[in-house]
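Marked as duplicate of an earlier ticket. Keeping the data here for the record.
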Amino acid sequence: MNHIVTVQDAVTAFADFMEPTDAELDAIEQEMPVILADVDLLDAHIVTLDRTPTELDDRRIRRARRRALAARVSLVNRAAGRAGGAA
């Protein structure tokens, strides 16, 4: 007779000690504007995958690209401010 045994790693894969730390959650929160801007840029590109981009699509992509860049610049400036000043 074969005994069926559960794999301990699979059962405890999501134990409390595997949760993100407060520092990791704070880092994600700081990067959230960049993440959301990147999602908007991807959405703008996805719309044009199955068709020829129109002038409106081109404008939407340009605006999304500018917002993503601005979000990244803002994140870098905030990080530089916390690190003790600009380079």
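See parent ticket for discussion. The CA atoms of residues 35 and 68 lie 8 Å apart.
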